[in-house]
Amino acid sequence: MIIILSLLASLFYILATGHVLSRLFHKEGPSQKLTVILSTVAILSHMLVLVNSVFTQYGQDLSTINIALLTCWVIVVSVTTVSLKFPATLLLPVVYGFAAILLIASLFIPHHIIMDDINVDIGLVTHISLSLLAYCILIIATLYAVQFYFIDKRLKSKDLAIMNSHLPPLMQVESQLYQLLTVGTGLLTLALIAGFVFLDGMFDKASIHKTVLSLIAWTIFASVTLGHHQFGWRGKPVVFAIIGASGIVTLAYFGSRFIQEVILDKF
């Protein structure tokens, strides 16, 4: 069942990606109705993959790949929802294409982190929830940063195709980028505070790399956010800083678990 649902979701993500890309520089843009239909089938199939993959007869499977699938699903739903009101022609192919690749890859990556009994700890739940939400918003902000850089570069080169395309106005993208960055940085701040307040061992040997990488990423995000609001920072250096910080926080969230669960498990 999971294999069929994963392939179905991947197929419709690929179809949605192909449709949006085929109309990327068309003045009217992709058909919103067709995009919504294709993406809705993909999103619902993706959700069923998560339900069947996480909730097994042996317990809850909270492996890295399932957490990644959940995070990806939240990002896809968020970007798709935003696209209903604001043009997101550059973002949709990226998130849909990545979701398709991740779903196909998940079929070849072992899932075996079974938890028979999950003790509900308010502090832990708060930290994890804030961390996941912060990560999703910051990744979306990063996608906006890449979109901003692409549009800005094409406009500076006086590309007539982009001037007549369905892509959103540069100033609108920039405004949404810094709104998302501010919210995401705020949530990451709260997630780190919750971790230090409610959890023991943030600097233990098993967790210190995650904590240090998260703090480095937070420092970059906070500096860029403050620099923009106080000193008007913008442009290529800011975009590269955001991308770099996103890479660091991704490594903090998923890097070590992926190595332990997938790579080292094979040896």
Order of helices and strands: HHEEHHEHHHHH
Tell me the number of helical segments per DSSP (H or I, 4 or more residues long).
9
Proportion in helices? over 70%
| Average of pLDDT | 88
End-to-end Cα distance, whole Å, is 29 Å
Beta fraction of the residues? under 5%
Low-confidence stretches: none
Q: How are strands sequenced across the largest beta sheet?
A: 1-2-3
Structural class: mainly alpha
The profile of the biggest β sheet is: 3 strands, antiparallel
Radius of gyration: 19 Å
Shape: flat
Q: Would you count the extended β strands for me?
A: 3
Q: Could you characterize the architecture of this molecule?
A:
The chain is mainly alpha-helical and 267 residues long. 75% of the residues lie in helices and 3% in strands. Helix 1 (2-22) runs antiparallel to helix 2 and helix 3 runs antiparallel to helix 4. The protein is flat, with a radius of gyration of 19 Å.
